[in-house]
Design brief:
Strand content: 35-45%
Structural class: mainly beta
Number of helices: 0
Radius of gyration: 24 Å
Strand order of the largest sheet: 1-7-3-4-5
Shape: elongated
């Protein structure tokens, strides 16, 4: 399941936003080995795996740190879009449930987003719903022994 999220900087300072998945309020709400891939605005992809309690970043993947300008800045964008792709292993399409994947966005105005003194944070919950199937049905009337087909069924047509 793919999601599109947006981060906006309403502060008066330029900075960096660090994006990471975080455990849901009830850790058992997600199955172990769930993966979340965060797709940064530049297309960089970082894979995280949930072990049933915490998320671990793929060791070779980059940290997801995106520069962002202050609100109203003319020097660059004060918001950006990013993607989240979620894979729920062992969950069937017909299982009726919802699976929350919280994404933590933390804003830092110093050190290129590399320190842990975040000035602000926000959590967006990307929720995967299963158990919903949509059936699309079409019908076509074809001429048999009846009159020419006009869109409505008539005796003798199929």
């Amino acid at each position: 399941m793919a999601f599109a999220n947006t981060v906006k900087n309403d502060s008066t300072e330029d900075g960096w936003v660090t994006l990471t998945p975080t455990a849901p309020a009830t850790p058992g709400d997600l199955p172990a080995n769930t993966t979340a891939t965060i797709v940064a605005p530049d297309g960089t992809r970082t894979l995280f795996t949930y072990d049933g309690a915490t998320w671990t970043k793929n060791p070779t993947g980059p940290d997801v740190i995106v520069p962002i300008r202050a609100d109203g800045s003319t020097a660059g964008p004060d918001e950006f879009d990013y993607g989240v792709e979620i894979d729920l292993p062992g969950v069937g399409v017909t299982d009726q449930n919802s699976y929350p994947v919280p994404i933590l966005a933390q804003f830092d105005s110093v050190a290129g987003g590399q320190d842990t003194d975040y000035e602000a944070s926000n959590i967006t919950i990307d929720r995967v719903y299963t158990g919903f199937l949509e059936l699309v049905k079409t019908a076509q009337v074809v001429r048999g022994d009846g009159p020419p087909v006009s869109g409505d069924p008539a005796p003798g047509n199929h």
